[in-house]
Amino acid sequence: ARIDVDLSDSKSISERLYGLFYEDINHAADGGLYAELVQNRSFEFSPADNASYHPLTAWSVDGDASVQDQGGLNGANPSFLRLGAGGSASNAGYNTGIAVEAGRTYDFSVWARADRSASLTVAVTDAGGNPVAAPAEVRAVNGDWQKYEVAVAAEETTADGRLTVTANGAADLDVVSLFPRDTFMGRENGLRSDLAGMIADLEPSFLRFPGGCIVNTGSYDRDSRERAYNWKDTVGPVEERLVNHNFWGYNQSYGLGYYEYFQFAEDLGAEAIPVVPVGVTGCGDSPEITDPDQLQTWVDDTLDLIEFANGPADSEWGSVRAEMGHPEPFGMEYIGLGNEEYKEQFYANYPAFHDAVREAHPEIRIIANSGTDDEGAVFDRSWEFAREQGADLVDEHYYNSPEWFLSNNDRYDDYDREGPHVFIGEYASQSNTWRSGLAEASYLTGVERNGDVIDLASYAPLLSNIDYIDWTPDMIWFDNDEAVGSVNYEVQKLFAANAGDEAAASTLTADGGTAAPDIRGGVGLGTWNTAATYDNVKVTGADGATLLEDDFTEGADQWTPTGPDGEPVGDWSVVDGAYTQSAIVENARSTAGSADWSNYTIELDAT
Ligand code: AHR
């Protein structure tokens, strides 16, 4: 093979090309990046978030203990736990439990009140009740709600820990919290250091947050439990933040909120790029804003966000930032208006946001957005609209097959250089496999070649907890004490760490050759490939045992094969329809055990 490079014909590449798409999906925040170890710390879980939830989700109680739903800490946190003398409550955290590691220090805190002086015993044990830390004591709980804190030093390591609080005397408790002290960069109310460290290793140049569909779904009625994402709900003291139904079907505490996102971006050396709702949703069928007064409130909230990020410390919202510990402005430069929008109401609502931001903050770069169809083709109307509006960038999203990425390397070669620039805000080839990783790597060569018009690009989604999966594939997989980067993660790291500043024209001359057909590996679930159908499917586990023999029409859905014991062995799907007689089931993952990252082999006849 031979590569000819023409140095006289080069284009500059955006300095911020490689960054992050972060969404609170797959429990990316609570039970993930947010280092809080207690699940349902405020007893606010509700069937409104998830039919299986109740105020004692993740808790087990003993003796005189009950949740009261009125008269609590504040309006955002009405429910609390009432313990009688000797009553206790244990929290099981996420996944297999609360993960603690010998030698690390954990900060326990609780808001409590007691009519008569009481004390609390704080124990961290394994699931069998064996202590993994010396019990700690909160002494003299007395009077109205106050915050009490005590440190817990772990002497043993466990991934299935329990935090148990026992009341010696009657007491009311709320916001029961256990945090590792060594969060990422030592931030208070901070992030899990292993996950944040892996993210930092990607050397991201921007952080787009907080989603994704969680941004623009839900009700614009402020009293609804399914409120559309409003950044104001997520700032200030954690005990005063609302909890909310997350579009992906769980409770989001907002403990990881806008301040923490800006702080994280700063700690990463990345540009913070918030995305706000514009009163309409491209995801599902949430109510839309048609009332101009209601729309204006959300426009004002958007302007207030810019003040929160960039305003002086004595401005209304800048002072909230300053009180939280960051008097200096964060220096936000971009704002995303809407996520993946294409509905009629978007075209009606967007101008109010765009015009208000442009007028008040001409220095901010405005990102409009677009949908794409299943083939990744751009909805022309969104681009025309963005041009008319004078948006600086358009955010486009696509999740496609490896073949699509391989055959669309030239997608941006003829893009209009005069109009809005491109933000590839979400993209992924549809599996965590070598094949998809290679397809993405190949595609990124085309992205770099067009780095003069593509300013920003981010793989999506970033994070998934293996026991709370809403979407696959994902870049980083984790449970309560481990984290694994997919092959796609390695691709991102490789490109970001070796980002160029100029793309020179080049030509490759090579003999044909054949693609290696047996590409397997990775973790997480594969997704669908609607391009082919299959018959006579046989699935063989890593140990050679037959796990399933059945007919299967691909494209209908994923399904869960069962092992010899009848238990589910994993969620999986065929990834590559191009193989004629056999293929690999990529990413089968045991759901029976906690973290069996193995793959399975599939034999099938293509029809
Ligand atoms: O990344 C997962 C989802 O894909 C996002 O929430 C949404 O923007 C897109 O449809």
Automatic annotation (TrEMBL):
Keywords: Hydrolase, Signal. It is an enzyme of class 3 (hydrolase). Belongs to the glycosyl hydrolase 51 family. This is non-reducing end alpha-L-arabinofuranosidase. The keyword Signal applies. Its EC number is 3.2.1.55. It comes from the Bacteria. It catalyses: Hydrolysis of terminal non-reducing alpha-L-arabinofuranoside residues in alpha-L-arabinosides.
